[in-house]
Amino acid sequence: DEDERTERIEAALAELGDDVVILGHNYQRREIVEHADFVGDSYQLSKEAANADADYVIFGGVTFMAESADIITDDDQSVILPSMEASCPMAGMAEALQVDAAWAEITAETDDDIIPITYMNSYADLKAFCAEQGGLVCTSSNAHKAFEYAFEKGDKVLFLPDKHLGENTAHRLDMAEEIVEWDPWDPEGKDASAAAANDIILWDGYCQVHERFRASHIEDLREERPDANVVVHPECRREVVEAADVVGSTSTICETVEDADPGDTWAIGTEIHLAKHLDRWHPEVEVLPLCGDACMDCNAMRQIDPNYLTWVLEELLEGRERNVIEVAPEEKELAQVALDRMLEI
Ligand code: 13P
Ligand code: SF4
Predict the structure, then answer these.
(1) pLDDT tens column, 276-320
(2) Cα(62) to centroid of ligand 2, in Å?
(3) For ligand 2, atom 3: residue with the closest CA
(4) How far apart are CA 273 and CA 277, in angstroms?
(5) What does the pLDDT read at residue 294?
(6) SS3 label, residue 104
């Protein structure tokens, strides 16, 4: 049962001491977050990983986050992901091979310098590709700064893989007129010269959790609860972001509720576990999930089961490192360049 599991996790952590640090993304379940040394958004977790001294960084999150932690930590530190099944579907929507082919087609159509920016939600080989082409990584908290960096260095941006974050960022920078989409799966619809004629080329990827939020959810809520405020993640569709009161990364969503006055009502347009944490952490604020709690569950994040956390910790006590995430050395160096550029902006 949960009490017994908690005791086992605590006993293992007491014995492992400073050898282990647990990082947990805001979307992890309560039973993981409760054991984490640090809970935050993707950007904060990458900074925590960079500063970690522990031999083992146990990552409560998804594969691309653990990969980034492996890239950023020293070679003698190991990053452990309690489940190897925790893969973000959006990251899988832009494979380096596919991007390479699109890059060749689009760059052949223009003499302008295109700078690729990949969202953190991507695999290390794509991060390495972006570094090689003069680009960088961004997260939802610094995408606007990454765009500014890219437009200082070059003429155009190829943004991967999340079209909604790309579109929302272009609006934030008043560049919405410059957008064109590139659908890598559409054999008919790809027009490299049309793509190359625009300043912002958006890869047609998306998050299947955030795409399910609709502007009608906000309209219905405002009708039923005119007093409610709405905060959403920038992976949501443009019309949802436009209808919300606040938009931002998972840490911005946390701060918004933290800063609310007692008695305020906030509806949360992001993964359901964060809405549940905020409800527990801030009993003085009324926290509502924007769309009930049935459909906004991230399958990838959910793979990190507390039983697996117990297992990887107890295996470490026996001297066995399980589920170590290791980025291939040839990708590591370049991907690090793309991440470092982000950490510097
Ligand atoms: P944050 O960087 O805002 O934590 O978002 C990560 C993520 O996967 C959102 O779906
Ligand atoms: Fe990926 Fe969406 Fe899950 Fe975030 S919420 S990890 S983008 S599938």
Answers:
(1) 999 999 999 999 999 875 678 999 999 999 999 999 999 999 999
(2) 8
(3) 298
(4) 6
(5) 60
(6) helix
Q: Which ligand is nearest to the CA of 140?
A: 1
Cis amide linkage into residue 161, ω under 30° from 0: yes
Span from the CA of 108 to the centroid of ligand 1 (angstroms) = 33
Q: Cα 83 vs. chain centroid, distance in angstroms?
A: 17
86 lines ligand 2 (CB under 6 A): no
CATH code for the part of the protein at 91-207: 3.40.50.10800
Distance (angstroms) between ligand 2 centre and the Cα of 339 equals: 19
Q: From CA 238, how far away is CA 319, in angstroms rounded?
A: 49
Question: Which ipTM did the prediction report?
Answer: 0.98
Each residue's pLDDT tens digit, 203-257? 999 999 999 999 999 999 999 999 999 999 999 999 999 999 999 999 999 999 9
The verdict on domain 2-87+300-327 having CATH code 3.40.50.10800 is yes
Q: How confident is the model at residue 263 (pLDDT cuts 50, 70, 90)?
A: very high
Binding region for [4Fe-4S] cluster: 88, 207, 298
CATH hierarchy code of domain 210-297: 3.40.50.10800
Our CA dihedral for 282, 284, 286, 288, rounded to 10 degrees, sits at 10
Length of the chain equals 345
Distance 295 CA to ligand 2 centre (A): 13
Interhelix angle 124-132/63-72, nearest 10 degrees: 50
* Ligand in nearest proximity to the CA of 26: 1
Any atom of ligand 2 within 6 Å of the Cβ of 287: no
Domain residue ranges in the chain: 2-87+300-327, 91-207, 210-297
What distance in Å separates the CA atoms of residue 66 and residue 53, rounded to the nearest whole number? 16
Helices marked H in 52-180: 63-72, 96-107, 124-132, 143-153, 163-172
Fold identical between 91-207 and 210-297?
yes
Q: Measured from the CA of 209, which atom of ligand 1 is nearest?
A: 10
The answer to whether 133 and 96 have CB atoms below 8 angstroms apart is no
